[in-house]
Amino acid sequence: MKKTVFLDTNVILDFFLDRSPFADAATTIISLTAEKDIKAYVSPITVSNVYYILRKFAGHDKVIKKLKLLLTIVSVTKMTKQILLEALNSKFGDFEDAMQSYAAAEYDSIDAIITRNTKDFKHSDLAVMTPDNFLRVHAS
């Protein structure tokens, strides 16, 4: 059965910025997504934040091109008023992580949130895994 995951912003940034030592796992997850071995979601917040951060390193056109390529292989969650209210009323210490978690939880098909900051998602109703842990489980 194909796994469906939600990719936190740090995983996408690790991939695009080739951040060592995290880029290898992020690249493998993006490759598995491109090969349709797994299905991956991101949130609209991720797309916005990645644009903002990558724009510091590259021009607008280049960043837009990279994001368009990313969007050919990942799905995007919805962000609704209800999700925002749940995030605002949650026990999460970080509002962005709360929004990500509640957006992912709207999809019954999502098996886990993949993030390097697992402690930030301790209040998530979904399983939370690091990229390395996910790849170990996926390989078995």
List keywords for this structure.
140 residues; Rossmann fold; five-stranded parallel β-sheet; 51% helix; globular
Secondary-structure map:
Elements: E1 3-7, H1 9-17, H2 23-34, E2 38-42, H3 44-54, H4 60-71, E3 75-76, H5 81-88, H6 95-105, E4 112-114, E5 127-129, H7 131-139
Parallel strand pairs: 1-2, 1-4, 2-3, 4-5
The total number of structural domains is: 1
At the fold tier of CATH, the topology name is Rossmann fold
What shape does the CA trace take? globular
Distance between the termini: 13 Å
- Label the CATH architecture: 3-Layer(aba) Sandwich
- Largest sheet report: 5 strands, parallel
User: What gyration radius follows from the Cα positions, in whole Å?
Assistant: 14 Å
CATH class: Alpha Beta
Total strand segments: 5
Helix/sheet category: alpha/beta
Instruction: Give the topology string: H per helix, E per strand.
Output: EHHEHHEHHEEH
Number of helices: 7
Task: Trace the largest sheet across and list its strands.
Answer: 3-2-1-4-5
**Overall mean pLDDT:** 96
The low-confidence parts are none
CATH superfamily: 5'-nuclease
Percent strand: 5-15%
Helical proportion, percent range: 40-55%
Provide a concise account of the structure shown.
The chain is α/β, with parallel strands linked by helices. Helices cover 51% and strands 13% of the residues.
